[in-house]
């Protein structure tokens, strides 16, 4: 599950236009499994940030929260990256629609 919050403030000088938080509960597995999931997600998020796969409008920043579910442990890297990207883009579009209405 991915949630997005768009904020109307410019990113800090030299900083990124978005940031990410990870939520990996005990339902995912024991400590070793949870930390492995966190490392995998962190690697994917850093890759997305480097390649600017999730672009924000100028003057906006984006907060992204990724909540891991137990089935994440059965995904390979390509599946997980695609799922994170697709869910983040979907949440970003939903957040944009919500911002337009207000």
Automatic annotation (TrEMBL):
<dbReference type="Pfam" id="PF00825">
    <property type="entry name" value="Ribonuclease_P"/>
</dbReference>
<keyword id="KW-0819">tRNA processing</keyword>
<protein>
    <recommendedName>
        <fullName>Ribonuclease P protein component</fullName>
        <ecNumber>3.1.26.5</ecNumber>
    </recommendedName>
</protein>
<dbReference type="InterPro" id="IPR000100">
    <property type="entry name" value="RNase_P"/>
</dbReference>
<keyword id="KW-0255">Endonuclease</keyword>
<dbReference type="GO" id="GO:0030677">
    <property type="term" value="C:ribonuclease P complex"/>
</dbReference>
<dbReference type="InterPro" id="IPR020568">
    <property type="entry name" value="Ribosomal_Su5_D2-typ_SF"/>
</dbReference>
<keyword id="KW-0378">Hydrolase</keyword>
<dbReference type="InterPro" id="IPR014721">
    <property type="entry name" value="Ribsml_uS5_D2-typ_fold_subgr"/>
</dbReference>
<dbReference type="GO" id="GO:0004526">
    <property type="term" value="F:ribonuclease P activity"/>
</dbReference>
<dbReference type="GO" id="GO:0042781">
    <property type="term" value="F:3'-tRNA processing endoribonuclease activity"/>
</dbReference>
<keyword id="KW-0540">Nuclease</keyword>
<dbReference type="GO" id="GO:0000049">
    <property type="term" value="F:tRNA binding"/>
</dbReference>
<keyword id="KW-0694">RNA-binding</keyword>
